[in-house]
Amino acid sequence: MSTKYVYTFGDGKAEGKADMKNLLGGKGANLAEMNLIGVPVPAGFTITTEVCTEYNKQGKEAVVEMIKGQVEAAVAETEKAMNAKFDSKGEAFPLLLSVRSGARVSMPGMMNTVLNLGMNDETVKVIAEKSGNEHFAYDSYRRFIQMYGDVVMGVEAEAGEHCPFEQVLDKVKEANGYAADNEMSVEDLKGVVEEFKAVVRAKAGKDFPTNPWDQLWGAVCAVFDSWNTERAILYRRMEQIPEEWGTAVNVQAMVYGNMGETSATGVCFSRDAATGEDLFNGEYLINAQGEDVVAGVRTPQEITLIGSQRWAERNGTSEEDRKANFPSLEEAMPEIYKELDEVQQKLEDHYKDMQDMEFTIQDGKLWMLQTRNGKRTAAAMVKIAVDMMEQGYFDAKTALLRQEPNKLDELLHPVFDTAALAAAKELSKGLPASPGAATGQIVFSAEDAEAWAEDGKKVILVRRETSPEDLKGMNAAVGILTERGGMTSHAAVVARGMGKCCISSAAGLVVSGKKMTINGVEYKEGDFISLNGSTGVVYEGEVATINPSLDGDFGKIMDLAEANTRMYVRTNADTPADAQTARNFGAKGIGLTRTEHMFFEGDRIWKMREMILAEDVEGRKEALAKLLPIQREDFYGILKAMDGFGVTIRLLDPPLHEFTPNDDASQKEMAEITGIDVKVIKEKVESLHEFNPMLGHRGCRLGNTYPEITEMQARAIIEAACDLKKEGLDPKPEIMVPLIGTIKELKMQEEIIRSTAKVVFEEKGVEVDYMVGTMIEIPRAALTANEIAEVAEFFSFGTNDLTQMAFGYSRDDAGKFLPIYIEKGILKQDPFQALDQTGVGQLVEMGANKGRATRNDLKLGICGEHGGEPSSVEFCHRTGLDYVSCSPFRVPIARLAAAQANLR
Ligand code: ADP
Ligand code: MG
Ligand code: MG
User: Fold this and answer.
1) Which end of the chain is more exposed for a tag (fewer CB within 10 A), N or C?
2) What's the start-to-end Cα distance of the chain, in Å?
3) From atom 7 of ligand 1, which residue's Cα is the shortest distance away?
């Protein structure tokens, strides 16, 4: 038997069904399924995605030859089901067709729908005669020429001009004073049809095809061709949709919403896609066809009475006006409304998800044209899943698996009040570097941000770009706006970590001194602006924001995640405030506290620099003694905020030159403050210069060359823990040695830590449980993990460095080539965002297995940026890690991803 290329549906029968999406595309599979469950759907057929694949291999002629017989047979069946005739010369009512593309997932860039296919100068007359409605016949004809001319024949607007078809329509409307297309008289429509044909001839260089079969093959091939348009290819690359999937073509009998006042067309949702409210809703237009509803040529009306009343209230329309001019479908066509309501309920019950549906009413009869699981906001995603679970549609497992972890991000940050946003003036658009909404007064330096914030003001820090020295100012600001930098710039990365709204590379923004201009308009310190970090839009003035709620349905989903997870989630936090935020989001401990950030605050940096500049051990010890109480206080705060949970504190990691002043002015300032000769300072700074700082004198190499640093930090941690213990709390410090490559490096550090702890315990007269462990971030550490586990009580995979060193990509320089690599398909994803499971993943797995072979209760976690990325979280679950650690605002996302990994 020959291969089946065409699947028919109609009259309550179908050759396909819902689970055949791969072969029939989403739209085709659901059209078949709706037929099978007794929903009224116009008959038609689907040409399979496999034909598209053949089309790309064999080309047009061969494929048309291949499927011709099956298509002709399917058209004949459609004719029978609809009691109409394609290419009718008057022997029956003409069958007109809609031709639509339909891939497995809906895809922008694919061919738009062509309606009313099969029309020509003869059929239009037959339709007019048999329907007794000449207006309808010619309205359909002019729609067909316009759509086919545009979509299949490529008639386009010249640059800067309106679409040539619209120009014709505008001219006619203007000449007669019509407000809308459907007011045109039959004579007008006939004139428009002729003018449209002339437009096609002029723009496409050939006549509009009159033979319906030529029209059909033209449209079918145009669908296949659209699989390879630039836009479609780009979208597939972005969404990682395989080339081989192909698109199906759906050919279906037309039903007519433009037959007069008893006809209509519309779009509806079984629940509210914005809020998730369990309320049927949608819009319709009387005497209209398909695209009119979305095209916005006329104001669509609400389907339900309640929707209509809400619309009137928002719109300021009186009840009288509403009833007379904008009645709901429920009021205008109560019987049909009832049927539609039943159908939407049936579809939702059947698919067990919120449905997005399209329908047409032809002269008092309802037809469904499409159904699919509706797209929704994060709020609706959460609410619909919880409601449907509680309504008994499905269990907790399904409710959890229905969540898209990354989308939760939308729910965690303050958002703009929708009405306020609609009224706000847009100033610029940049990269949506970190989501959230912020409104405040502009300041231009980190110090000002801090000072103003201390005075209780909400500030937005505007910088050309940011550096580590801006950290405190960034923290004090409610939002950050930069002139330069990409999605992985310092500002972007740090802001995301802080869960702070940030826009980078804002178009038209120029920052100079205490001034900025946006497209030539000047703004001063203290002026108000607002940032939408989720869209990248900058607004003028203050825009009201609202805080998200973490209980309600969101809380329920999080509780379900908690009950269904094996792996737990920690956070990366350097301050008690961050620790608290993360704890509120459900973090169970800290996976990474970086001690170096603390050294930048206030005048601490001077003490740090004093230590760096010290001539000898004695000098260093003296300076370190000054840092000790400050560090102890920091650790005290963090351990207290995470009381009862493990807190991993990493010893000093970055190369020392990051702490020294690099420009003349700050070196002079330093000389004044310390009393050290500026020449000495310059020499010291120079001596710290390294060719490859990331591979240089950093991590445990610092602690092993300057053991007194490790000693001070260990002391600060243990003293803080002892103090808390005395207060009756339960601190659980885990001291982490960074950048280990050999067992000896760790062993030496461990000895210092343990002997220091012993001394402190004696001094304080109290003991605390603590652990000593290490980061696994150098490939050699992963390879020799069995040795390292002899000393380490825990491993934390530092996947940022591990990725950097496994690939040999410098994270700070990768911006130059990574985007190009991804564009060219050399890499599928940025390995710094999603863990490279095939390569770097092997190191993690090997480290975990070898480590546990030596020490079976070895505690394992991950603390790179990957800890908050769902596919990486799933990998960690499979690899048997105990926890993942991520920035505070990613904690809920990681918790959900961990539960999903456990349920899959
Ligand atoms: P989209 O994917 O943009 O929704 P569709 O392929 O679903 O595009 O079709 C666009 C419009 O065409 C729909 O709104 C629908 O109302 C109309 N349409 C599609 N098929 C038919 C048909 N057989 N009869 C009448 N209208 C149709
Ligand atoms: Mg549609
Ligand atoms: Mg590291």
Assistant:
1) N
2) 39
3) 370
Question: What CATH code is carried by the domain that includes residue 201?
Answer: 3.30.1490.20
Closest CA to 362 of 284, 260, 448: 260
Name the closest ligand to CA 265: 1
635-684 per-position pLDDT tens digit: 999 999 999 999 999 999 999 988 888 888 888 988 888 888 899 889 98
- Ligand 1 nearest-atom number relative to CA 265: 16
**CATH, residue 280:** 3.30.470.20
**CA 369 to centroid of ligand 1, rounded, Å:** 7
Ligand 2 centroid, distance to 373 Cα (angstroms): 12
- pTM (2 d.p.): 0.84
Is 480 inside any structural domain? yes
Model pLDDT, residue 487: 67
pLDDT value of residue 617: 92
Name the residue with the closest Cα to ligand 1, atom 11.
290
For ligand 1, atom 15, name the residue with the nearest CA: 290
Q: Which of 327, 352, 376 represents a domain boundary (last residue)?
A: 376
* Cα Dmax for the chain: 107
How much is the pLDDT for 491? 82
| Beta strands 590-594; 646-650: pairing state | parallel
For 257, the token pair is 């919403």
The answer to whether position 865 is within a domain reads yes
Pocket of ligand 1 (CB under 6 A): 42, 98, 100, 113, 115, 252, 254-255, 265, 290-291, 358, 360, 369-370
Q: Which residues of the chain have pLDDT under 70?
A: 1, 291, 293-297, 487-489, 497
711 and 860 both lie in a single domain: yes
User: Are both 534 and 584 inside the same structural domain?
Assistant: no
Ligand nearest to the backbone CA of 291: 1
- Kind plus residue range of the DSSP H or E element containing 359: strand 355-362
Domain range for residue 245? 50-253
Residues of the chain by 3-state class (helix, strand, coil), percent to 5: 50, 15, 35
| Ligand 1 atom at minimal distance to the Cα of residue 370 | 7
Q: Within this chain, do residues 528 and 631 fall inside the same structural domain, yes or no?
A: no
> Where do we find the tokens 């940049």?
430
Give me ligand 3 centre to Cα 525, in Å.
Answer: 38
Nearest CA to ligand 1 atom 22: 254
Both 620 and 751 in one domain: the answer is yes
Number of the ligand closest to the Cα of 254:
1
Residue 35 counted as domain residue: no
Binding-site positions:
594, 650, 777, 798-801
Boundary residue ending a domain (253, 285, 308): 253
Tokens of 179: 């407000």
Residue 579's domain is classified under what CATH number? 3.20.20.60
Q: Which of 370, 371, 372, 373 to mutate to test the pocket of ligand 1 (most atoms within 8 A of CB)?
A: 370
pLDDT for the residue 234: 79
- Whether 863 sits among the annotated catalytic residues: the reply is yes
Tell me, yes or no, whether 117 lies in a domain. yes
The whole-angstrom separation of Cα 692 and Cα 115 is 63
Q: Does 877 participate in catalysis according to the annotation?
A: no
Nearest CA to ligand 1 atom 8: 113
**Annotated catalytic residue, options 502, 700, 863, 876:** 863
